[in-house]
Amino acid sequence: MAHIDYTDFHQSAPAAVAALMALGHAVGESGLEKDLVELVKLRVSQINGCAFCVQYHLNLARKLSVSAARLDLLVAWRDVPVFSARERMALAWAEALTGMAGRPVDEALREQLATVFSTEEIVFLTAAVGGINAWNRIAGGLAFTPPSAAA
After folding, report:
1. What share of the chain is helix, strand, coil (3-state, %, to 5)?
2. pTM for the complete prediction?
C-alpha cells in the first residue's frame, strides 16, 4: 500500500473527516475546559503511540498555554502534583476507556467520575476519548506524518 497521509485521507474520505470533525466540534462547544480536553487527547495518543496525534495535540495544548511541566509530566500524571483533581479523574477515565478491550471499565471509577463531572460533562468527555481513539487508529494505522512542532 502506498503511503497515505492526512491530506490523502481527507481527499479520499471527506465524509469520514467531516464526521470526526463534527464530533470534535461538539466536544469543543460542550463547555469542558479546552486544556483538560487537550490533556486527555494527548494522553490517549501517547497510550496508542500515535505520533501524528501526539504532536498535533502538543501543538494545540501549547497554544492554550498549558505549561511545559504539565506536558512533560503527563505520561506520569499519577505521580506528580501538577494536575488538578478534575484533570486526574478525566485522565483516569480516558485511560480506562482506551484500555477497555483488555479490561472492563470499573464501576467504582464511574461513580468517582460522577463526583467531579456532571452527566453532560461525562458524556462529552467520553465522546472526546472515543473521538481521539478513532483518530489515533486512523492516523497511526495510515502512518500520517506528524505536523511540525509549534514554536
Report:
1. 70, 0, 30
2. 0.95
